[in-house]
Design brief:
mainly alpha; de novo design (two linked rop proteins); 4 helices; about 85% helix
């Protein structure tokens, strides 16, 4: 039987997976201009990596390793947020196509940031 920590970890892993799927779908709709292709490549890279890195963190060999790997998740998710904001500010896509992913990025950043703080305090 799973404990609450494992359930939370599974839920978070699922959120990262769904976030990556959303990023894949969004990048496919970006304009095929040089700027659109560049942003799509950057967002595809950083937007799909947090989930894989989170899975690595869940299998960390030590608390230090766990914190380090969560730090990678944190940075990649923040980079994703940057590219999503750039898409909005540059009006490459309408707000309604980007808003839910941006909100999810914000929530994931907050969760992972808090998790890092908690792991460091123990």
């Amino acid at each position: 039987m799973k404990n609450k920590k494992e359930d939370f970890g599974d839920e978070l892993a699922e959120r990262f997976l769904n976030f990556a799927v959303g990023i894949i779908k969004l990048t496919a709709t970006l304009p095929k201009t040089p700027a659109g292709k560049h942003i799509a490549d950057q967002l595809l890279r950083c937007g799909t990596s947090p989930g894989a890195n989170y899975e690595e963190a869940r299998g960390a060999e030590s608390r230090k390793d766990f914190i380090h790997k969560l730090g990678v998740v944190f940075k990649e998710t923040k980079e994703s947020r940057y590219w999503l904001k750039l898409i909005l500010v540059s009006k490459m896509l309408p707000h309604n196509k980007v808003a839910s992913l941006l909100t999810e990025a914000e929530e994931l950043i907050a969760i992972v940031g808090k998790s890092i703080m908690t792991a460091r305090s123990k």
